[in-house]
Amino acid sequence: MIGSAAKYLTPKLPPYPGPYTVGSVEVEVPAPWPAKYDAIGTAVETLLFRVFYPGSVTADGAAEVHPYWFPGGNRDYIKDYVQFLGKSSTIGSLLARVPFVADAVLPCLANIPLLAPPSGHKWPVIVFSHGLGGTRNAYSQFCGSMASHGAIVIAPEHRDMSAPITYVRNYKDNTYSEIPYRRMMEVNETARILRTFQLTQRVREVVSIVKVLLEQKIDLTPASTVNSREPVSINPINFNWDFVDTTIEKVLYSGHSFGAATTIAVVKGVHHLLDFLFQKPTDAVATNNTGNEEVPDSIDQEYDPNDQFLRPHPSAGVVLLDPWLIPVYQMMGIPLTVPAVANMSQSFYGWKSNMNLVYQLLSNSAVPEKIRPKTDTGVHLFLTKPSVHHSQSDFALLFPSLTKYAFKLPECTFETQTAVMNMNVAGCVEFLREYAGVQLFDVTGDADEGLVRTESKEHEEGSTETVSTGYLVAGGQIKGWSRLDVENDITVVDILEGNT
């Protein structure tokens, strides 16, 4: 009876759409390049991230383990997620005691070996940055789906007070310190300082992880999690770096919301925001169209303009999901010189002041012709329906009824949100294949009209419910996406007051 109830009450994620089994490992290592951010009261002390990858399933009889969606199955995360959503800690504590909620798992397999790629190929690398309220697991469906098509996807957990809760390991005594979420609803000088240094920390975390993995090629030893219900291994997983394209210039960056802003800061250089904040000469000031932001007289933070982590970082392309660009609006006039795709939900598309910045970002982009067809800009903007901001994360899949009522999306069901997620993945696969020169797999059909994942998959054993049907790709567009025109440069007026 209990087993039957658990089957139906435990939140579930759909199978990944690609041809490969997905493995995943959670890693935490000491930060080789630590930094303190007194302005926001945080620091980069360790690097915590989850890696999704094409996995090899061995026939040695070892038990298949699925990672918990709430890290380690720790129920404390439920309470903090509820508080992030603006509800009381009492409600969160009660929900954390509800059976089965904390038992949600990822569709990937924990700590299995990395699969050898097809002959003559190496797996490409994507780094995905979470948004406000996100974690290393919060976008597991997108990250795992991209891995199922043949990519190594790295999902950092940022320690900038943007996660609902995160724990930093102290390697000296094997204890953990807690970093809570910091809510900032206002848009003012204080928030500008805090967001800028959050981005500065996020960029350091992203770039540090890339350098640690692709340059140092460290062993991937599974991390221990606070109050974990998962078995912990002290041995590194079988992860052969010779199977991976470790060329730094070929890394792809992606992110959702504030994570998309982080992606922009990585490739354009977060020093532009700091130069503006510290009133130093910068291209960002020259292209700032608001002309009315007051910058502070003094900031409780040192700033080294020669810090390598603050400069622009090379990339083969960027994928932006619901980019929240107000925190980086000073950088909109600086060309984005890599192939870019931005995919908007209906809710973010309706946010006019932010959409103006999205148009400005893409219209000021200049992708070199050597990496794109002469008839195409290498920049794409799409709208997915039916969707809300949380449709880009796992939230709408795990809790469709809550999403339906909380975000007023009557069409929100597990099936529609699975379709939305698969459309996002299908579009990103096609975009990266076409414009970033990335070889991803399970895209069939002729050159003019590909077909992404034609087979349907079942949600549960014995169920006839279709959760993945595949999407036609023609002329750079996914069936189910609405193509939006990238307009000419838009002058943004008084963005901090919400006026355009």
TrEMBL record:
The keyword Nucleotide-binding does not apply. It catalyses: a 1-O-alkyl-2-acetyl-sn-glycero-3-phosphocholine + H2O = a 1-O-alkyl-sn-glycero-3-phosphocholine + acetate + H(+). Its EC number is 3.1.1.47. InterPro entries: AB_hydrolase_fold (IPR029058), PAF_acetylhydro_eukaryote (IPR016715). The keyword Ubl conjugation does not apply. SUPFAM superfamilies: alpha/beta-Hydrolases. Keywords: Hydrolase, Lipid degradation, Lipid metabolism. Belongs to the serine esterase family. This is Putative phospholipase.
